[in-house]
Design goal:
The complex is a heterodimer of chains A (413) and B (139). Chain A has 413 residues and is of the alpha/beta class. Chain A has 12 helices and 12 strands. Classes of the chains: A alpha/beta (413), B mainly beta (139).
């Protein structure tokens, strides 16, 4: 199935994440998206031991014209101009293997010699947009002539039914999993409860008050079986990375984080409701393609930072990536011990998006780097025998949107 | 008691490729685009058959019967003023890998189960006939 020929090097391994940076993060910061982006970028550049003039590549998700107010962040031309960058390579777009496609693209540009140091960023101001920004609950429409806007494209198939949000679509995935595999609300709730405990140790997290199972089960229902705490928290913030050639690893004052393998496949239909398996979605394909590119195995992974725009997505990723057998994630999650910081598979150790804030995949990549570098402070994970974590799996996306990455501490060939 | 859908039906644009689908219910019949070469039902509609790449395509009738593959009861006020309503993915019996997102109507949530047989019914709003599904009458 893999297009990689026997013995062929996965070229993404020529790239490392040499620097990480994050702006202030908050529910409603009242700051501009360019302002937040530059704050994150400057922190990432400094972290990599570079200056602005070293940056010759720029990459973002989802780029120009995407989504509703507060969703997309500034475009790459806006950031280039605002920071006075001179670029050998630039890219921004929303189609590809999840939000992390911007990191994937940067790693391939590095491997191809199109750039030496790529600034990658993702910025959201969805908290402000939903607060004072006048963002409506339902976007799109226009044309058609009636008093109410009409809808085209893929939204036309769901919006007449009030199925307007991914919450509705993913609630049906959760319901299907309850039917096929016996997943329970208590098992699902282990994810938001564990994330909340981790968020208490993340100074930038949005929600840090302890959450009990009673709190979870009593929360307001959004769309059965998903309640409020199964849905992530819109926020304002920017996350940035510097992706560089692995040759720079020795120059850094911290361990380089090497990109070991990308997962990019979409082998089923690119659709929320027409995908062949209603319990797996595109995560199945992206994860499979990642493992086809590496000698590492799921058992080698020391921490997983798995997309939790909704809790059920994390469930899907756990199985897609092979941390549990098919349908076995419910018992794995029960009680939360396996996914705790001292468990078999420390999960979303910064609180994820459910409690840490919806930084749209990038905070999970950031946290994987923090943990691999040993900079987690109070929330730093230590593996059995006092060993520092060496391998992290990161996943972004839901439905037909899925990308994944295996990251390792330090550089091997 | 649940509603048969949101309090406001946001409607599709009747562009050339989908108008047949959204008006098919005018005579009470559900239709999908079908490949005349290999018989495959194509949904959403496209200019070629994704299975055999034939361009010889035309809308064709289906029985209107299907099965509930999964469902959710929506409480969130995405569309303000809506009472709770049931959203489902319904597989079409004529070709079960065609699934429609729809509302289940004339049924209470506690009576809905995955695998439940349903049949199409239409709600006429402006120039659109919206396919909905209700519990199937035993045949």
């Amino acid at each position: 199935m893999s297009p990689l020929q026997p013995g062929e090097e996965p070229l993404e391994r020529r790239a490392v994440i040499s620097g990480i940076g994050q702006s202030d993060v908050g529910r409603r910061l009242g700051r501009g998206e360019l302002d937040l982006t530059i704050e994150a970028a400057e922190r990432a550049i400094a972290d990599a031991g570079l200056t602005r003039d070293d940056i010759d590549g720029l990459s973002t998700y989802p780029g120009m014209g995407a989504g509703t107010s507060g969703f997309a962040g500034p475009t790459s031309p806006e950031v280039q101009d605002a920071m006075g960058l001179s670029l050998n390579w630039h890219d921004g777009g929303g189609e590809g293997a999840g939000q992390m496609r911007a990191v994937h693209a940067a790693s391939l540009a590095i491997a191809a010699g199109l750039a030496r140091h790529v600034l990658v960023y993702r910025t959201v101001t969805e908290g402000s947009a939903q607060g004072t920004g006048g963002r409506q609950g339902i976007g799109g429409g226009g044309g058609g002539g009636g008093p109410v806007p009409r809808f085209g494209s893929f939204m036309q198939w769901s919006i007449p039914y009030g199925a307007v949000s991914a919450a509705n679509w993913l609630a049906m995935v959760a319901q299907r999993r309850m039917h096929e595999f016996g997943l329970t609300r208590e098992q699902l709730g282990a994810i938001p409860i564990s994330n909340r405990a981790n968020a208490a140790l993340n100074p930038k997290a949005i929600y840090t008050d302890p959450m009990t199972m009673e709190d979870y089960l009593a929360a307001r229902m959004i769309t059965t079986p998903l309640c409020l705490f199964d849905c992530d928290a819109p926020c304002d913030g920017s996350t940035a990375f510097i992706v560089s050639h692995r040759d720079v690893a020795g120059d850094l004052d911290h361990p380089a984080v090497q990109i070991n393998a990308l997962g990019t496949a979409l082998r089923g239909r690119p659709s929320w409701d027409q995908f062949d398996d209603m319990t797996t979605m595109a995560a199945r394909d992206a994860a499979a393609s990642m493992w086809e590119r590496t000698e590492l195995k799921p058992a080698d992974v020391d921490t997983a930072q798995l997309y939790d725009g909704f809790s059920i997505l994390t469930v899907v990723w756990l199985e897609a990536l092979g941390f549990c057998g098919r349908g076995e994630s419910g018992p794995f999650l029960e009680g939360g011990a396996n996914i705790a910081r001292d468990g078999i598979l420390p999960l979303n150790t910064n609180g994820g998006q459910l409690s840490g804030g919806r930084l749209h995949g990038f905070s999970l990549i950031h946290e994987a780097c923090v943990q691999l570098r040993g900079e987690g402070g109070e929330r730093q994970i230590v593996r059995a025998g006092g060993r520092a974590p060496e391998v992290a799996a990161v996943a972004n996306g839901g439905g037909p949107i899925a990308g994944t990455m295996l990251l390792t501490r330090g550089v091997s060939s | 008691m649940v509603a048969n859908g949101p309090m406001l039906r946001l409607l599709p644009r009747l562009s050339d490729d989908v108008a047949f689908y959204w008006t098919s219910g005018e005579d009470g019949v559900l239709r999908f685009l079908r490949c005349n070469t290999c018989g495959f039902f194509i949904h959403p509609p496209g200019p070629v058959c994704p299975r055999c790449l034939s361009r010889d395509l035309a809308p064709d009738e289906v029985s209107g019967r299907g099965h509930v593959e999964t469902f959710t009861v929506n409480y969130q006020q995405w569309i303000p003023g809506s009472d709770p309503y049931i959203i489902a993915w319904v597989s079409i019996d004529d070709q079960p890998d065609v699934r429609l997102t729809s509302n289940l109507v004339d049924v209470e949530p506690e009576d809905v189960h995955i695998g439940m047989p349903v049949e199409v019914t239409f709600e006429h709003v402006e120039d659109v006939w919206i396919p909905l599904f209700k519990p199937a009458v035993e045949s």
